[in-house]
Design brief:
about 80 residues; mainly alpha
């Protein structure tokens, strides 16, 4: 494992962006899929390769990216 953590967690960012994108284009009943990126973030913490701030920033960034892309693409379900 690396000696220092990177900011933000790229794995968490990708996981949240992917799941958020899926949920934005599919029915809302898929909301439980968010357990996957939460577990990705938890694994990064458990392995000691990221801090809580790294994972939280990655989650926020992933959500923001998916919402911005949905908004720019004219996705009607986007906020």
């Amino acid at each position: 494992c690396p000696e220092d953590s990177s900011f933000p967690s790229g794995h968490t960012t990708a996981a949240f962006a992917g799941v958020s994108s899926i949920i934005l284009v599919m029915p809302r009943r898929l909301f439980p899929l968010y357990i996957v990126p939460v577990l990705v973030g938890a694994s990064r913490l458990a392995l000691g390769v990221h801090t809580l701030m790294d994972v939280a920033a990655g989650a926020f960034l992933g959500l923001a990216i998916s919402l911005i892309v949905a908004r720019l693409s004219g996705q009607p379900k986007a906020l």
